Amino acid sequence: MARARARLADLLDGLPGRAYGDIAVRPFRLTVDGVLFGLVVEAGEEADGADDRAELHPDGLGFRAPWDGLYDT
Hints:
Strand content: 25-35%
Helix content: 10-25%
Radius of gyration: 17 Å
Structural class: alpha+beta
């Protein structure tokens, strides 16, 4: 594992102008051979969308506000 982390660090260090920041991802869905792939928004009951969540398929990772990268399994 340590060797893999070191290799990843080397690869990332070789990227010119690398900067970390916020990204935007839009929902999508694609079904292949009956398997759903995508980031699917599931609307909650609140009218303002405060309890909306997004589910990453087929992994089953769930995301919700404040959309900070934390997830539920």
